[in-house]
Amino acid sequence: MLNDLKKVLVTEAEIKQIVKRVSSAITKDYKDKELVIIGILKGGAPFMMDLIKEINLPLIIDFIRVESYHGGTTSGELIFRKDIEVDIANKHVLIVDDIIDSSRTLKMVIELFKKRHASSIEVVTLLDKPSGRVIDYTPKYIGTTIGNEFVVGYGLDYQEKYRNVPCIGVLKEEIYKK
User: Per the domain annotation, does 4 fall within a domain?
Assistant: First the structure.
């Protein structure tokens, strides 16, 4: 699978450093608050699992699954596949995502949680890709910013593959432009 990468953007060691830095900020910011961490499936799961191990606070976790990409790299209609099960009313919600690109998915999830009366809603993302923005949004917690490249690994996929690659890399064009 590593042979399908044009280059590595974020190494496994760098991911661990990002997790420690971001979790430290979250621990400080949410001290004495009722925190619910909600991961966006499937891509955000590895980042969330590593993140929660480093957050030194009592917290509740849940997941939501929203599909926004169909057939590889083409953006499609947003479809909610799994909703959260926890009541977030009057709680502080932190959404965990693997990558913020267009912000369309994120906007829908935030709007849904606002309707459910969360006390606050913030976002932590491993990767921020501002060049892909369709909706203007900047997450509160950003692992690292990347350019306009097609990346896979550590939860990010191409046609459900490459999620288990331990680093984040740029996928070779011949793989996804077949």
Answer: no
**pLDDT given at position 68:** 62
Q: Is residue 173 part of a domain?
A: no
The tokens for 100 are: 């913020």
- Distance CA(138)–CA(118), nearest Å, equals 19
Cβ-based neighbours of 128, under 8 Å, separated by 6 or more:
99, 100, 138, 139, 142, 143, 144, 145, 146
pLDDT for res 41: 94
Whether 42 shows a pLDDT value over 50: the answer reads: yes
Q: Is residue 32 part of a domain?
A: yes
For residue 160, tell me if it sits in a domain.
Answer: no
* 101 a catalytic residue: yes
CB 141 within 8 A of CB 156: no
Q: What is the CATH number of the domain that holds 100?
A: 3.40.50.2020
Q: Give the structural domain span for 133.
A: 13-147
Determine which one of 50, 97, 101, 157 is catalytic: 101
